[in-house]
């Protein structure tokens, strides 16, 4: 059994921030990343919590990521804004772009934000949630390293390319989904490998293109998109939206440039924000949101259903008082990173 260390959310935040700062990241970057890591632990999204910190540190130490990059906002069109991350991590660039994107969406009804030259190592739900909490409908798309074969092919080409969607709700947290376009997250395959367990069928193929349940063969071969050609089409769309459209790289280009230091590859992200009240004649946001609630209620009438994000919101009720756990080995690694950078 894996030995676990228990931490309060305040301890998670302090540990994340201090390790990131000790690695050489500027205060603004360390703050923005620590916020996403703490939010992930709070919401039981373990794959984007403290588990990610060693990767962030590795990419600073290898010199791949600029630790004090200052994101730059540019207006490209009345409803299009760009943030150039200048080779820094994504959370700060996204934070900087949020207000300009929201302002443009309110003014024009719909607006887009292209975030370029960033390293995205987090979940996408924080950025769409923040916009939905401002009353906007939000979408986000980003590409990643090349791990997923195009449908019918056998070689990695697409990233695990996630997309997220958030819908504002009156008096409660937004409805959010956030999902990769691959059948499984890459980290899931790595965890099966670590634990010596086979992966489910349909997640990957080996280097010869044969279906495999062996995690090592899967990591050497290619991951598969979810839902066959349908997930592959979404991965393709995300390559275009987060790459060619906003002037950034495709996953295969990012992989070719990457130094494989354990952190993320460079890439771009497209966000779209929509003001519901500007989408219908005599728009009435409250009526639109109330209408949406009738759909959510219909879903929940059926046994066995839940809304996407409700798992995270349930965790959010628990973790502020109970705290969270991480493997002791990870805790020790983080303490070591904190101290080794201190000296
Ligand atoms: P999951 O398959 O775990 O979940 C996808 C979505 O489905 C979530 O919003 C989840 O909500 C919802 N969901 C799951 N089960 C149900 C259910 N029974 N009923 C209704 N909704 C449900 O996510 P993935 O493994 O595909 O992705 C994991 C994360 O990895 C994402 O946050 C993604 O952004 C991130 N990622 C980041 C990359 C990067 O480059 N930065 C690359 C690839 C992935 P809930 O959260 O409530 O369970």
Automatic annotation (TrEMBL):
The keyword Oxidoreductase applies. It comes from the Bacteria. InterPro entries: Mal/L-sulf/L-lact_DH-like_ah, Mal/L-sulf/L-lact_DH-like_NADP, Mal/L-sulfo/L-lacto_DH-like_sf, Malate/L-lactate_DH-like. One of its GO terms (molecular function) is oxidoreductase activity. Keywords: Oxidoreductase. Signal peptide: none annotated. This is Oxidoreductase. Gene3D superfamilies: 1.10.1530.10, Hypothetical oxidoreductase yiak, domain 2. It comes from Entotheonella factor. Belongs to the LDH2/MDH2 oxidoreductase family. The keyword 4Fe-4S does not apply.
């Amino acid at each position: 059994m894996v030995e676990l260390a228990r931490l309060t959310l305040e301890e998670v935040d302090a540990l994340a921030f201090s390790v990131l700062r000790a690695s050489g990241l500027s205060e603004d970057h360390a703050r923005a990343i620590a916020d996403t890591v703490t939010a992930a632990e709070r919401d039981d999204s373990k794959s984007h919590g403290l588990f990610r910190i060693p990767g962030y540190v590795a990419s600073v130490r290898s010199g791949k990521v600029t630790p004090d990059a200052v994101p730059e906002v540019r207006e490209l069109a009345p409803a299009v804004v760009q943030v150039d991350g200048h080779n820094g991590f994504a959370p700060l660039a996204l934070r900087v772009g949020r207000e300009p994107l929201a302002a443009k969406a309110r003014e024009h009804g719909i607006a887009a934000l292209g975030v370029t030259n960033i390293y995205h190592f987090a979940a996408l739900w924080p950025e769409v949630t923040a916009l939905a909490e401002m009353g906007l409908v939000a979408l986000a798309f980003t590409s990643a390293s090349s791990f997923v074969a195009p449908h019918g092919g056998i070689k990695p080409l697409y990233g695990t390319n996630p997309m997220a969607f958030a819908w504002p709700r009156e008096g409660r947290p937004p409805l959010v989904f956030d999902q990769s376009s691959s059948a499984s997250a890459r980290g899931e395959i790595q965890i099966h490998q670590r634990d010596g367990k086979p992966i489910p069928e349909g997640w990957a193929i080996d280097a010869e293109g044969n279906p495999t349940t062996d995690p090592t063969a899967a990591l050497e071969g290619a991951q598969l998109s979810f839902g066959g050609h349908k997930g592959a089409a979404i991965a393709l769309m995300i390559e275009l939206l987060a790459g060619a459209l906003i002037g950034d790289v495709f996953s295969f280009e990012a992989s070719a440039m990457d130094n494989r230091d354990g952190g993320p590859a460079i890439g771009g992200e497209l966000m779209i924000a929509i003001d519901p009240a500007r989408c219908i004649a005599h728009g009435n946001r409250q009526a639109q949101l109330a209408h949406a609630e009738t759909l959510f209620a219909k879903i929940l009438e059926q046994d066995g259903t839940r809304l996407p994000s409700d798992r995270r919101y349930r965790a959010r009720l628990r973790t502020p008082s109970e705290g969270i756990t991480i493997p002791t080995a990870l805790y020790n690694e983080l303490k070591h990173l904190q101290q080794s950078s201190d000296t």
